[in-house]
From TrEMBL:
Species this protein is from: Niastella populi
Signal peptide start and end residues: 1-24
InterPro entries reported for this sequence: Peripla_BP_I, SBP_2_dom
Keywords in alphabetical order: Signal
Family statement: Belongs to the bacterial solute-binding protein 2 family.
Protein name as catalogued: D-ribose ABC transporter substrate-binding protein
Pfam families xref list: Peripla_BP_4
Keyword Disulfide bond recorded: no
Superkingdom of source: Bacteria
Length: 319
């Protein structure tokens, strides 16, 4: 017969395991004498978010931290796994680009409960008691400026398509609402189709191809990000309509800045990911060193880029 261990031995072993686990966490932190900052982004399948993540990690490294990037692949569950691993590994702060304004709140709250500050970059979460601070693009105002330019280019009349981003991202709706706050004032502007393409270039191309079959005669396309703008442009090229349809994006990504110079895309809203990423990293450093009085939200202005001022800009920012 097998004999079980006495209770006091089991308790001793359990206590030993807890001590070893705690020591392991401390060792992870102290291996090279540096504290650790995690950079969690919604996806690395988009050059704009790659730039955001790399800039945040580079700034954290320059400030003296070990930095590691985590790709959530636009999946809140994957994001949740990252947060759990980050908490167990004993990271000191998280620079965060969320997958979902509502769905990501629980993940941020887990980090807060574990004593790890979270600084949101670009994408908002719908809570004011979770993240330590949120550094966000002013998407609404940026889209208002695009709406004005869009209306002017179409001379207040024409048929157009809108491609939306992820429906769970507040930026999607801020941009759409800002745009429509202008265009809906002109009865001559008719939106013939509006579909989500999840901020994805390939999906935008497929969606646009389908829309063009039903609505072959359009004058313009407004896209919630530059990846979708490039996908829409590819579909227009394939349909032989690229020179007849004006395309507007939002981001300031490298391929669209080049496309504006080449008169392929008409305009975009220039976000400033470097400002958001470096501010988040700087805030994390200040938090770790003792600061606690951070503003809950910091808006970062978005600027309209068109052929008229393209020479003032480079990818992801101003010259």
């Amino acid at each position: 017969m097998k004999r079980s261990l006495p209770l006091y031995i089991k308790i001793s072993l359990l206590s030993l395991l807890v001590v070893l686990f705690a020591q392991c966490k401390q060792q992870q932190k102290a291996e090279n004498g540096k504290k650790k900052i995690a950079v969690v982004v919604s996806t690395l399948n988009n050059p704009w978010f790659v730039f955001l993540a790399e800039t945040a990690a580079a700034k954290a490294t320059a400030l003296g931290y070990d930095a590691k990037v985590f790709d959530s692949q636009n999946n809140t569950a994957t994001e949740g796994d990252h947060f759990e691993n980050i908490i167990v590994a004993g990271f000191d702060a998280i620079l965060f680009n969320s997958t979902d304004a509502n769905g990501s709140v629980a993940n941020v709250m887990k980090a807060k409960k574990a004593g790890i500050p979270v600084f949101c970059m670009d994408r908002e979460i719908n809570a004011t008691n979770a993240a330590t601070s949120q550094i966000l693009s002013d998407s609404y105002s940026g889209a208002v400026a695009i709406g004005v330019s869009f209306t002017q280019q179409l001379k207040k009349k024409g048929r157009y398509v809108e491609l939306l981003g992820l429906v769970g991202d507040n930026n999607t709706w801020a941009r759409s609402k800002g745009f429509h706050s202008v265009t809906d004032n002109y009865p001559g502007l008719q939106m013939v189709a509006r579909q989500s393409a999840d901020f994805d270039r390939n999906k935008a191309m497929e969606v646009m191809e389908s829309i063009l079959q039903a609505h072959p005669d359009i004058d313009a396309v407004f896209c919630g990000n530059d990846g979708m703008a490039m996908g829409a442009y590819q579909a227009l090229v394939a349909a032989g309509k690229a020179t007849k349809v004006k395309v507007f994006g939002f981001d300031g990504a490298e391929d669209v800045i080049t496309a504006i110079k080449e008169n392929k895309v008409y305009g975009t809203g220039m976000q400033f990911p470097k400002v958001m990423a470096e501010t988040a990293a700087q805030f994390a450093d200040e938090y770790i060193k003792g600061r606690r009085d951070f503003p809950q939200k910091i808006p970062v202005a978005v600027e309209l880029v068109t052929p008229k001022n393209i020479n003032d800009y480079i990818a992801y920012g101003k010259k």
